[in-house]
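hi! just following up on the protien thing from before. the input was this:
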Amino acid sequence: MSDMRHDDWVARYLPAAWGPYARLCRLDRPVGTWLTLLPCLAALVQAAEGWPTLFRLFIFSLGALLMRGVGCTINDIFDRDIDSKVERTRFRPLTSGQLSLKNALWFLFGQFVVCGLLLFAVNEYSRWLAVLLVPIVIVYPLCKRFTYWPQIVLGIGFNWGMLMAWSDTQNIVPLAAIAMWVGAVLWQVGYDSIYAYVDVRDDLKLGVKSTAMRFGEHGKLWISGFYVATVLLWLYTGIALHLSWAYFLVLAVITAHLAWQMWVFSLSRPDRNFMLFRSNMTVGVLLIVASLGGTLIN
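and the predicted 3d structure came back as:
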């Protein structure tokens, strides 16, 4: 039931002393990084009205990797006592004693320093947006203590790069870009709620909150509603940005994929729900394809 493998590339190729740090920032599990990066790349394409520059692709890809790592490190620092009581997370570096709290805090400081260096590669508008992201990343792990909606805060932070993609490319964030971002936030609330059902029994015992606990037996209805809102917002974005027919064709495929998720989703199948959560990487890839098609194909 552990959410990390002890025979993966981290164990095989990294020095033993580096392993706990790699696992703390989730380098061994890149799904979250991809789910952060893919919508951001789609926004870069839309903002550039085609292919973004290689430099901007590199900076935003590195930023997604680093900031996801920062978020995971902060999450494990705050949740170290909770994680020790959950079967899936009890082998994480801080809870298992592989890493001390002091070293984790120094590592977090180092991550922030490297992220700060990236600010010199973006414009002033984007720097201010990046600064605004920091409190969102810090507060997210605490949200599950007092609200059933931590996934909203997670979605805001995870997809923040979409706004920065526009601010850095065009020095503006138009309404259509905000609609695309809100759609991505709601999409994340949906798919992360699917993931939350994997831990709902442990969360009930520990007294922490999630959308899965709020939705209860009505999870399929709630998540379907978030997915419908996502598609409508992304549809509006395509119209407002005057994207070509190719965007709407791929958006139809995305809609079918999300409908398939709801068809397969089951409250009583945690293994299936984890598979559905991972399948959202496909949605992210399709979003990039839709954006490329919508901007490059007449």
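The mean pLDDT is 91.
DSSP finds 16 helices and no strands in the chain.
cheers
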